[in-house]
Write a structure and sequence with these properties.
3 helices; mainly alpha; 2 domains; about 0% strand; about 80 residues; about 60% helix; single chain; disordered C terminus
Length: about 80
């Protein structure tokens, strides 16, 4: 009986991992050759996660008056 319970727990764990990996894959972005710069920025600014790096860069875009500025509205086409 104990072996059955261990196998059942393992199966549930694998299903959970697959579900979490699928969810993570839906938000994944490939930044290609910019990856070393991304990591350097993350370390230089002391940011704890990739999400924090993304928010930092978006905030910089807003401060510099880029197309993603909330005051101009946001459009996926880049046209406000």
């Amino acid at each position: 009986v104990l072996i059955y319970l261990e196998e059942d727990t393992s199966c549930k764990g694998k299903k959970k991992l697959r579900r979490l990996d699928k969810a993570r894959g839906q938000t994944r972005v490939n930044i290609g050759t910019a990856f070393p710069r991304w990591r350097h920025l993350k370390e230089a600014k002391g940011l704890q996660s990739d999400a924090m790096v993304a928010l930092f860069l978006l905030d910089r875009c807003v401060l510099l008056g880029g197309v993603c500025s909330p005051s101009r509205g946001f459009s996926l086409t880049g046209k406000c």
